[in-house]
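In the design runs reported in the main text, the only information available to the sequence generator was the tokenized backbone. The following block is the verbatim input for one such run; it is reproduced so that readers can re-run the procedure and compare outputs position by position.
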């Protein structure tokens, strides 16, 4: 397999990680693009001692942690996330938190200790009301249990587009966990898009086919959980979504519109 094929194989999940780390699609994809540009200029940057996937994530981390890149206001090709500078949680623990919980890199030195640090720091800030949009009963039950164990309150479980819109408009959740394809043929993605026209809320999407929403070819979710999911994955992605929402509110309070 050629190097370009190896990169293409692992690119979707690298995009997922980048978006979760930065808080949105545009910033995450911009960092990935910067990594690919660096790799095109110097192929020796890819360290494949532990496999191409680990090498790509390592190179991305070097780009992300580049002081010159993050602090240079003249870098016009990269949409730098303001959350990167305003984070109350140090970048290294948050990276470890996502690498372990979301991407499954369990053999990174000091990862578990850093993950524990990030988990404790996030947990103190993120308790909220959660709406679950999921038509499969057992998956919905698992999510409800996980969410409660994280300290959140579940305001309801919706199994259709119509139920989701009705519940959310009535109870105004602080976080939504949404399956993308619902059994009655309706779409969790459509339901969320309808709700986001009414009020702002962080959303984590759940899908068995994450690669379909990690192409960068259209507006796509910033936060994705793959089916089947692990409890740590739900914790990591939900925490990130809420983390950036809180930072956004602290950064620029919205004026009321009438």
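Verbatim output:
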């Amino acid at each position: 397999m050629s190097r370009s094929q190896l990169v293409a194989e692992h690119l979707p999940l690298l995009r997922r990680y980048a978006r979760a780390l930065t808080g949105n699609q545009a910033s995450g994809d911009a960092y990935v693009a910067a990594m690919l540009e660096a790799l095109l200029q110097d192929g020796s940057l890819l360290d494949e001692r532990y496999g191409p996937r680990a090498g790509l994530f390592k190179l991305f981390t070097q780009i992300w942690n580049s002081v010159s890149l993050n602090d240079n206001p003249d870098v016009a090709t990269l949409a730098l996330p303001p959350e990167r500078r305003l984070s109350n949680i140090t970048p290294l623990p948050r990276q470890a938190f996502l690498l372990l919980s979301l991407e499954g890199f369990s053999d990174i030195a000091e990862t578990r200790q850093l993950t524990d640090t990030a988990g404790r720091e996030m947990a103190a800030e993120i308790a909220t009301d959660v709406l679950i949009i999921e038509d499969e009963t057992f998956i919905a039950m698992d999510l409800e249990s996980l969410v409660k164990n994280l300290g959140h309150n579940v305001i309801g479980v919706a199994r259709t587009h119509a139920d989701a819109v009705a519940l959310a408009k009535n109870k105004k959740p602080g976080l939504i966990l949404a399956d993308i394809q619902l059994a009655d043929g309706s779409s969790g993605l459509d339901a969320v898009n309808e709700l986001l026209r009414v009020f702002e809320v962080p959303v984590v999407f759940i899908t068995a086919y994450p690669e379909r929403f990690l192409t960068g070819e259209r507006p796509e979710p910033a936060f994705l959980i793959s089916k089947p999911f692990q409890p740590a994955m739900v914790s990591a992605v939900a925490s990130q979504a809420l983390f950036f929402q809180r930072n956004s509110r602290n950064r620029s309070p919205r004026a009321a519109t009438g």
